[in-house]
Amino acid sequence: MKQNMKDMNKEELETFFKNMGEPIFRAKQVFSWMYRGAFSFEEMTNLPKHLREKLDCDAQIKYLDIRKKQVSEKDGTRKYLFGLLDGNAIETVYMQYKHGNSICISSQAGCRMGCRFCASTANGLQRNLTAGEMVDQILMVEKDTASKISNVVVMGTGEPFDNYENLCRFIELIHDKDGLNIGLRNITVSTCGIIPKIKEFSMDFPQVNLAVSLHAADEHARNQLMPINQRYPMEELLQACRDYAKKTGRRITFEYTLVAGVNDTPKHAQQLRSKLSGILCHVNLIPLNTVSENNWRGTKRALAGQFAEILGQKGIPVTIRRELGSDISAACGQLRLNQK
Ligand code: SAH
Description:
single chain, alpha/beta, DNA polymerase, domain 1, TIM Barrel, 2 domains, ten-stranded mixed beta sheet, 14 strands, 36% helix, elongated
C-alpha cells in the first residue's frame, strides 16, 4: 500500500524519511513542495532522482481529479466535482469576495446525518475523507484558479464532527506556517449539532469559527427536519452553544435554512429570537436550495427580509446568505447526486 503523504504532519514525514534511511531535512523539502502545489515527486527538483523514483513507488500525493467544473460568468464562483482514487466523488466550491478567496470543502463522501432537505445525505455515508483529501481540495482549487485561498469553510458534503480526528489534522496542516499558513480565525467549521464534539472543539480549537445548523426554533420542527435532533435535542444544543460562547468568547453563527411555509413565518422568527436571546451569536439565513428529492421550496427574498427584520429588532445580528454563482446553482450536493 502506498503511503498518503498529505495525511502526514512534519514530524511524521521526518519519521518516514528516517525509516527510509534518508536525512530528515527531506521531510521539510517535501512538505514545502506539497504545499506549494506540487502534485508529483517528479516536480521536486531538489530531491535526487533515485529518491523521487523511490517515493513514486512508495507514496502518493495526489488524491483528486476534476470530474466536472462549473464556472459562474457572473461572479467567478466555481463548483467542482472531484473524483477520489476509489471512485467516490465529492464537491468543492470556490468563491471570490472583496476580502479574499474562500473555499467550501467536503469532509466526507456522503453523510449519515439524514437532514431531510439536504441532497448530500440522499445515499448515506460512503466514507470519511482523510486529512490529505481535504487538503487536496484546497491545493487543486488554488492550482486551477491560479490564486491563493485565504478563507476555508468546512460546509460541503459531510458532517465534520463525524470525522473529528481527520478534521483536526486537516486544520493543523493548513494552519502550519510551512503548510498553507491559513489563520485559525479564517477557518469555519459547520456542524449539525453533535454536542460532545462542540465541547471538545472548544478546547482543541477555540479560535476556529463555529457554525451550527439550527434550522428550527422548537424541538418538534427540528425533529422533522433533522433526525440528529432526536439524539441531541435543541435545548441541550443551545446550552452547549451558550457554554461555547462563554468559554471561547467567540460569536457562534447559527445557520437557518428557510423553507417556505415550514419554518419561515413571523411566528417562527419570534420564537427563534427568544430562543437565541442572551447567546453571543449571529444568524445566517439561507433560503433553501430546492432539491429534486422533495417538494420543499426556498423562501422568497422579501419574506426572508421580514424574517431577518424580526430577529434584528432585538439586536440579533443577522444576514441573508448572498447568492453567489446563481447561474450555476446546482443546489448543495446536486452535482454529486446527478453524476452518471
Ligand atoms: N453537516 C454540516 C456541514 C455541511 S451542510 C452541517 O450540517 O452544518 C452545510 C449547510 O448547508 C448546513 O447548514 C446545511 O443544513 C445546509 N444545507 C443543506 N442542504 C441545503 C439546501 N438544500 N438548501 C440550503 N441549505 C442547505
